[in-house]
Amino acid sequence: MSISCDMLVFGGTGDLALHKLIPALYHLHREGRLHRDVRVLALARKKLDRAAYLALAERHCRAQVARGDFTSEAWQAFATRLDYLPLDATQRSEFVRLAHHLGEAGKRGVRVHYLATAPDLFEPIAANLESAGLAGDDARIVLEKPIGHSLDSALEINEAIGAVFPESRIYRIDHYLGKETVQNLMALRFANALFEPIWRAGHIDHVQITVAETLGVENRGGYYDHAGAMRDMLQNHLLQLLCLVAMEAPVRFDAKHIRGEKVKVLEALKPITGNDVLDKTVRGQYGAGRIGGHDVPAYYFEPNIDNDSDTETFVAVQAEVDNWRWAGVPFYLRTGKRMARKRSEIIITFKQVPHLLFKKGEVNRLVISLQPEECISLQLMAKAPGKGMQLEPVELDLNLAHAFSSTRRWEAYERLLLDVIEGDSTLFMRRDEVEAAWRWVDPILEGWQGHYRKPRPYPAGEDGPEQARQLVERHGHQWWR
Ligand code: BG6
After folding, report:
1. Which atom of ligand 1 is found nearest the CA of 236?
2. How far, in Å, CA of 411 to CA of 179, rounded?
3. Mutate-to-test residue for ligand 1 from 20, 214, 233, highest number of ligand atoms within 8 A of CB
4. pLDDT at 398
């Protein structure tokens, strides 16, 4: 399906637009997935003319796209779709100018307003779009996470956006849901008879979800120092992964049913309150260290970060899904910046066999690796060659990049942008999902303030603070390496 559309990117000179959205649209263009009438209008405060914006966008796109996928011819052709308009999104009068600009260009199919801005601009932009007549039936709005800063602010944003756009035309993006392996998790669970019978407390010992990055805050200090790892990553990406691991099979593979099942998981998360906050969560902040052979500074020496900042760049939580299927199974979640290795993975550790026949009591593990490699491997016990029954763990590997080697792996944003244009909200967060996630996260954030404790330091290039290791070890578990 290919639909004509005007895509307006608010925050058009920001990192997200330049590093992710424009390259994703370029790929879609190059592979012929965009209707010939799709036009992209980037908007931001900077006073640039179209030529200057195109030069900026080309430079970033060239740097982001794999060598071989970027050609000047393809860029030139793509650039004919691209335009730029300086705009102060807080000024209502500017939207009249915007409407005029769009009017001159002629109306094309649906209109997508992509808000790649800070959340405090969501409300004014929606209101200004409405007053300029740009929020009609053909208009959709895309909101980037984090939606708000807390439950209250998320409610406020949802209320304000909901007053302008019906829920069916609001797309709350969490780019993790656009990752191939994340969708593969649903295929693995619901298209194979193998796992479902043992996908429950009686057979699963614990679940780990790790999203580790080697990057620091780069030039996003202004935003990050007010967000921290909990709001930036755990409230959204990690909880979404948890939902996909823990949800029941949806009745149908569509937006209503999948999102309905995810909300039930979020609502079943056991609240972490009072002293449990200290017991079941660990906050950390990176200090100076080495990454990839280079010295890197401590968090509080990064640009735009307060020297005495106590924002967490690492968080680990022991969560529990309090329902029939999962009661008693720990879900350990952790994410951090400046960690030893970039990797996102979900590890399902199964229980030991009920009766040990062999000396080595190893367990089966299903390792779902989202990045850098996309692969799924099952750790089984096998007999090592030779005399006696020496058991060793061996891996049954499914490398998705090899299995589908003739197909280019899509970036998450490519898939999600196409879904917005085509009006498919299956992989976007519904209002109640976002609010349920905040409802669980808020008491943890409040607990951190109430029982104030500075974040635990960890050297850049290591796997987070010591306390995160203790969090799992006291239950006889270990983080999977
Ligand atoms: C974003 C966060 O949502 O996800 C960033 O705001 C983080 O801080 C990024 O670096 C990680 O995404 P990915 O796809 O590289 O794992």
Report:
1. 3
2. 7
3. 233
4. 85
How close is the Cα of 221 to the center of ligand 1, in Å? Answer: 14
Per-residue pLDDT tens over the stretch 51-62: 999 999 999 999
Min mean pLDDT across 101-105, 204-208, 271-275, 297-301 is at 101-105
Alpha carbons 49 and 29: distance in angstroms, whole number? 23
CB of 184 closer than 8 Å to CB of 422: no
Q: What pLDDT, on the 0 to 100 scale, is given for residue 349?
A: 97
Q: Please, which residues bridge with residue 209 across strands?
A: 333, 346
CB 463 within 8 A of CB 340: yes
Spacing of C-alpha 226 from chain mean position: 18
- Categorise residue 174: left if φ over 0, alpha if ψ from -120 to 50, beta otherwise: beta
Q: What is the pLDDT of residues 1-43, one digit of tens each?
A: 578 999 999 999 999 999 999 999 999 999 999 999 999 999 9
Nearest Cα neighbor of 342 from 375, 313, 371, 374 is 371
Q: Work out the burial of residue 107: count CB atoms within 10 Å of its CB; fewer than 13 is exposed, 13-18 middle, 19 or more buried.
A: exposed
Helix (H, G, I), strand (E, B) or coil at 234: helix
Query: How far, in Å, is the centroid of ligand 1 from the Cα of 334?
Result: 14
Indicate the helix (H) or strand (E) that contains 315.
strand 314-320
The ligand 1 atom at the shortest distance from the C-alpha of residue 227 is 6
Per-residue CA distances from 123 to 90, 147, 315, 390 (Å) = 9, 11, 29, 64
Q: Sign of dihedral through CA atoms 33, 17, 56, 410? A: negative
Burial class (CB in 10 A: 0-12, 13-18, 19+), 81: middle
Task: Pick the closest to residue 40 from 16, 2, 7 (CA basis).
Answer: 7
CA 245 vs CA 79, 190, 298, 470, 478: distances in Å: 40, 11, 34, 24, 19
Cα–Cα distance list, 369 to 181, 215, 221, 457 (Å): 8, 19, 28, 27
pTM of the predicted model, to two decimals?
Answer: 0.95
Q: State the Cα–Cα distance between residues 24 and 28, nearest whole angstrom.
A: 6
Q: Helix, strand or coil for residue 7?
A: strand
